[in-house]
Amino acid sequence: MKEEFKAAYEIFLKEWGQEAQERMAIEEMSELIKELCKKIRFNRDKFENVPNEKIEDNIGHIKEEIADVLNMAEQLEIFYGTEEIEKIRSEKIQRTLKLLKEVE
Question: What's the CA gap between 70 and 13, in Å, rounded?
Fold first, then answer.
């Protein structure tokens, strides 16, 4: 988490509360899912008959939704405990790297 965002996140949590921010996180995640599904549909069609402008718009929307999801996830991280979540993230990354080595 960028330290420059943390103060703002804490203000948002204090102003709107944990439950409201959890609902907003769900909404933002669903919007990202929707945009990724569109991209998959475009890929399945191999971009045939899909105007370049529409593809570029979709990619722009994906980037915006990723930013929204990250902002909401980091707010939840503050509420649920940054240190513990960072520890869990690290463990999961290490476990996946170990699995990749085992496959090689």
Answer: 15
